[in-house]
Specification:
mainly alpha
């Protein structure tokens, strides 16, 4: 009798030889669970980092064009609007985090049908939330949300149409974020890179026309940036749907089961991803409340403009790079844990942290020595704005080192299924500590801009230390994840 995975062969002399059968072919990249770890992390990280940098370029062009056409109040309007919009986006992205965890585990184990079932359920859930929940609630809640961040009248006038357009037509962006996570977790980071670059190029094309105006097309100013973003994302979403349905990529929304909502899978998506979504919400609520402190300063409009450009745009060179590393780390960690190789997870996290430190140090060099030149790109030459922006950039040159390490360790935790620990760490480091510092200083002393910037640095340092400590405890290695197999599947 032959053992599983082996076959018997009889030669002419009658002797029986046992030979190992060739392993079944898989459409997933096996080098992630078999090859060198640094190469596996870099293979997934560099396309994601490049995609995120292109995405950051898109936001920077928006700010540069709006800053030169509308003025610094237009920059402040985009900054506060994105901070609010991201709270919603991050919550919906919790579904995508749950999907990414499941996809990585199933891809590592070679279970193709479970991968595609998971992607389909995440797809229909995201569409429903975007169209039926985000659009109507976001439209009517926008004025009150802008009041929450103390947006002054001029900034609010520019921000209100922008954020309403973003809420109403967010589905295209939701599909792009969902698809990027699914492909990356399955080992394909190049397709999301191509789609991300296409999205950025289309966005730049539409935004430059719609913000400034061209020929018979009038200048829409700040709201033109939102219009261009939504049009570009919608086109990419339609193209992506066609490829997903026709099985052109490593993941698909066609599978062997029912196409009705599968509540067992959807519950699993939320169970795995909701803590990550709550983490993102906590961080962005912290950001919104931090904007309220910025808005309470004597030079509120100048400070909000400096915050929008320096922190949400220029600092994105570090955060977007680090988020790319976090996603790559999560995918490599999830696949290797799914393949029963927890020791490779630790090596992947360490490799990603080294890459992140190099990138953060490179970008931080320019923040430290060329801050005025960077701010001038966005048309920010008003002395008060420049003074505040230079202070922030120089502090962020140090803060970026802590952020990048924290995010790579967060990727290791989330990729293995531990999404609760990063939630608690984020609440402590991104909400309690920085906001607590600002509250105490405002109540007992005269709060100034540089106090807020140092509070941000203290939060990043805390997040880094706690993330390393939690990962090194090793509890993630015992987390089991699965979904039920349907009859058709």
């Amino acid at each position: 009798m032959s053992e599983s995975g082996k076959s018997q062969a009889t030669n002419p002399s009658g002797e029986i030889h046992i030979t190992q059968d060739a392993p079944p072919q898989s459409k997933y990249d096996r080098s992630i669970i078999e090859g060198p770890l640094s190469r596996a992390v870099w293979k997934l990280a560099w396309p994601t980092m490049l995609t995120n940098l292109f995405g950051g370029l898109q936001g920077m062009v928006d700010h540069a064009v709006v800053g030169n056409v509308v003025g610094f109040k237009g920059n402040a309007a985009i900054g506060v609007s994105w901070q609010i919009f991201l709270v919603v986006v991050v919550f919906v992205s919790s579904i995508f985090m749950g999907m990414s965890i499941l996809v990585a585990r199933f891809a590592g184990a070679g279970e193709e049908n479970k991968v595609d079932r998971t992607v389909y359920q995440a797809f229909i859930t995201a569409i429903f939330i975007g169209v039926c929940i985000i659009a109507p609630i976001g439209y009517f809640a926008s004025p009150y949300l802008l009041d929450l961040v103390n947006a002054e009248a001029g900034v609010k006038a520019e921000a209100l149409p922008y954020i309403r357009i973003m809420f109403l037509f967010s589905s295209g962006l939701m599909i792009f974020f969902m698809l990027s996570g699914a492909l990356r977790s399955a080992g394909d980071a190049r397709t999301p890179m191509v789609l991300g670059i296409a999205l950025t190029v289309l966005n730049l094309f539409f935004n430059i026309i719609l913000i400034r105006g061209l020929g018979p097309i009038p200048s829409f100013g700040t709201k033109g940036a939102a219009m261009g973003t939504c049009i570009a994302a919608g086109l990419v979403a339609v193209y992506s749907f066609w490829n997903l349905w026709n099985r052109k990529w490593v993941v698909s929304i066609r599978h062997g089961g029912s196409y009705l909502p599968d509540w067992r899978v959807i519950r699993k998506l939320f169970k795995c991803g909701l803590p990550a979504g709550m983490q993102g919400i906590a961080m962005n609520i912290g950001g919104v409340l931090m904007l309220a402190f910025v808005g309470s300063l004597a030079e509120s409009a100048a400070a909000q403009a400096a915050y929008a450009v320096s922190y949400t745009q220029l600092f994105s060179f570090i955060t977007f790079t680090s988020v790319g590393l976090m996603g790559a780390t999560a995918a490599v960690a999830g696949q290797n844990l799914g393949a029963g190789q927890p020791e490779r997870v630790t090596g992947a996290v360490h490799a990603a942290a080294r890459f992140g430190l190099l990138a953060a140090a490179f970008v931080g060099f320019f923040f430290l020595f060329f801050p005025q030149q960077l701010l001038a790109v966005f048309g920010m030459t008003e002395p008060t704005v420049v003074e505040i922006g230079v202070q922030l950039l120089r502090i962020l040159s140090l803060s970026g080192l802590f952020v990048t390490v924290a995010l790579t360790y967060t990727g290791g935790l989330q990729g293995t299924g531990d999404t609760k620990s990063p939630l608690y760490i984020s609440i402590i480091s991104q909400v309690i500590i920085p906001l607590g510092i600002c509250f105490v200083l405002q109540a007992t002393y005269h709060l100034e801009a540089w106090h807020i910037w140092l509070a941000i640095l203290a939060g990043h340092m805390t997040r880094c230390g706690l993330s390393i400590l939690r990962f090194n405890q090793g509890n993630w290695s015992d987390i089991a994840i699965d979904i039920e197999t349907t009859e058709a599947g």
